[in-house]
Write a structure and sequence with these properties.
Radius of gyration: 23 Å
Strand order of the largest sheet: 3-2-1-4-5
Order of helices and strands: EHEHHEHEHEHHHHHHHHHHHHHH
Strand content: 5-15%
CATH superfamily of one domain: DNA Cyclobutane Dipyrimidine Photolyase, subunit A, domain 3
Largest sheet: 5 strands, parallel
Shape: globular
CATH class of one domain: Mainly Alpha
Distance between the termini: 72 Å
Structural class: alpha/beta
Number of helices: 19
Helix content: 40-55%
CATH architecture of one domain: Orthogonal Bundle
Amino acid sequence: MSKPEITFFWFRRDLRLEDNIGLFHALQSQFPVIPLFIFDEAILDSLPKNDARVGFIHDSLSKINVKLQAFGSFLLVKKGKTHEVWQQLIQEFDIKEVFFNKDYEAYAIKRDWAICELLTSNKINSFSFKDQVIFEEKEITKSDGLSYTIYTPYKNKWLEKYNSMAPVQEYDASDKFSNFYRDAMNPFFTFPTLEQIGFEQSTIKVIPHNLKNVTNYHETRDFPALDATSHLSPHLRFGTVSIRKLVNWAAKKNDVFLSELIWREFFMQILFSFPKVVSHNFKSSYDGIQWRNDEEDFKHWCSGTTGYPMVDAGMRELNETGYMHNRVRMVVASFLCKHLLINWQWGEAYFAQKLLDFELSSNVGNWQWAAGTGCDAAPYFRVFNPEIQLKKFDEKEIYIRKWIPEFDLGYCKPMVEHAFARDRAIATYKAGILK
């Protein structure tokens, strides 16, 4: 029995049917389209079995599968080493084309190159598209073609280019959904449970995003007790929302919120242009800093028992929910690097384990910003005072009391005195910065 000729669309960080550019182009194919997601063991094997992000991915895929069933189609879900999965698929199907959206992290670039080589060797055409950003790689550069390393001129160039084409084109393929492959009898399309993938439900959940909070974002974003953020970041990370729709909307509603979306793309192009930042300081002159890296101090920071309420509330929020307010993230990161003189890489790795919205480029970029070692970073002598931050942004102590129930009874004393820690940090940085 001959195998039907097929086009594959490979979902990765774009878990939606709406305004998905790679899917849009796949559905123009002359061949029926099988949508695919691969749970990559190279990534999964390093995660705890109750990782909330895997649960969110599975839930998002399940919703896509339900939508596809309305068209008599199904989502094909596989688990394994990506290269081996594709080798199996090539044997099982007569694949003519594969469409996918680009990913810009080093592992993904290497993976995609290997898969495209495999497809080419089997005479299968592959097509990749820009989907998770408005401008990628080298689209926003200085006049000499080099990458920006300072945010403000990057932002200005970004806005100039966006405004020349606004609104960015969106891609509605709903009239082509009938082109999805349909075969209700095919056993390949049994949607797996989370347990069959080897994971279990977490008590931590991704919160639905809320754009109503964005209208007054510039006035409310620094106050964690208000819970006035959009909760969009995990949805952007996994592509359950379209960056094109979001930017077109934000450009009309709130410039400050739009600037935050531009920061995301700035850090992505930094990671692409300077891949060393994942494990090294962007500013090599900071390589001589002698970090204390005290493991007991790090444990207190991780558990939220430093004696500084804003720091401890933020860490407890992170540990319990997978979220941390952006203002609090700056305070928490500064405290680890400056007050405790612990290498930013320790904090970056901990956030990578815990944050629902973990995105390598933004995580590394923001941690190096806080440490002073990154591009366009806070100067090394800028040391956040956690007590002043508390008074400015949680004056009524609503946020800290929510996360520190023992605040009025038995709360721990500060593990280090601020003035002492500040002087020590500045002296250590001064001595460590290479001339």
